[in-house]
Amino acid sequence: MENPQIRYIEAFPIQQDGEEFVLIQDSEGIMEKPLVITRNAAFLISLMDGNHSLRDIQAEYMRTFGQLIYMEHLEQFVDTLDKNLLLFNDNYRNFVDRLKKEYEAEKTREPFLAGRSYPANRMDLLVYLDSVFKEDGQPQQNLNIEITGILAPHIDYNRGIEVYRDVYRYLKGVEKPLIVILGVSHRQTEKIINISLKDFATPIDTCKNSEMLATIIKEDPVLASYIDEWPHRSEHSIELQLPLLQFVMDYDFEILPILTGSMHECIQGIKPFPDKEIEDIIVRLKDAIERCGKPCIVLSGVDLAHIGEQFGDRYPLDNLTLAQSKTKDERLLESIRDVDAERFFQLVKDEGDKRRICGLTAIYLQLLLLKDSRCHITGYKQWYDGKSSVSFAGAVFFT
Fold it and tell me: 232 and 211 in one domain?
């Protein structure tokens, strides 16, 4: 506690009653509720890197603000962070170790967002989804094409439901008993992919993991090394797809959930591109799916650009900036429409991923897996609250 170290958290500026605060969120889901702190408290946290002692932090606070923070108050603040499991220390590590063991022992991943991002009651959720997919003048998408994949958002339903609806309607009547779901891990992971072999529950029912495919993966020495359940526990990018799949699919299906990690070493030129590791994963995944012998859909739950104050940008997010971002998104969507994985990656790399494409790896893998398919973009939207923006799209792949 003498040299406190803050663990990985998300911090966003917010306003309450005309005053500026910082909202602390935990992408791991260890801390149950968000924590609202003052900007001065956020400054203290920024110094907690494990190298500054409490005396160092006290002195730096005095130099910056010209005010003395009493050591007693600083110790109380550190204690509050510790009780909220925000410090990287033995208390946090012991708690997470217990949680991991409990989670690993469970056969089913329970819904993490039920009651937060969508109704926790089964009937309430079904009524909500029925209202989403009710007749709205749009034709049913029972086209004479073989669906091989869809690209959907992973933003919350409230902001993205129109784009969700317009792509998921294509799955109505589709008989594909295996769905490989590529999601985005919003917390740092050691591996480029993280495979889960658990069943995933929702308030509607349980999505069964493919036992046959799981066996094939466990027997493959490379793919088996990517089995990692823990990143899936609180991640929303796959979970938000499941109630929609359960509602629109007329036939039984099994899933293979895969969370993707970061390709930023390739973006920065630290690792060569094309990435040999990813190429090997794709070859082995294709072989595993083929050996499974079931018709398959490759689904990605992804968003595009994240820009503005909430994501650390200091430039104003005016109409011109939004229009420029939309133009860049359109180029990305052109590469997706052409099922061109290399061009998609290169476009992101050329701009240094400054717009934080939250789906880079998942989309890249999906395009590689579906390289022989064609694609139609079904929708696009920029969510904007005046200071920050998230863009997202829908697309259907077919032969």
Answer: yes
- Where on the phi/psi map is residue 98: left (φ > 0), alpha (ψ -120 to 50), or beta? alpha
304, amino acid identity: L
Per-residue pLDDT tens listing for the chain (399 residues): 789 999 988 888 888 888 899 998 887 778 877 889 999 999 999 999 999 999 999 999 999 999 999 999 999 999 999 998 999 999 999 999 999 999 999 999 999 999 989 999 999 999 999 999 986 555 555 567 899 999 999 999 999 999 999 999 999 999 999 999 999 999 889 999 999 999 999 999 999 999 999 999 999 999 999 999 999 999 999 999 999 999 999 999 999 999 999 999 999 999 999 899 999 999 999 999 999 999 999 999 999 999 998 888 988 899 999 999 999 999 999 999 999 999 999 999 999 999 999 999 999 999 999 999 999 999 999 999 999 999 999 999 999
One DSSP character per residue, 34-94 reads -EEEEHHHHHHHHT-BSSS-HHHHHHHHHHHHS-PPPHHHHHHHHHHHHHTT-B-SHHHHH
| Residues of the domain holding 359 | 107-398
Say if residue 191 is in the same domain as residue 303: yes
| pTM, to two decimals | 0.90
Phi, psi of 266 (to 5 degrees): -75, -40
Domain total of the chain: 2
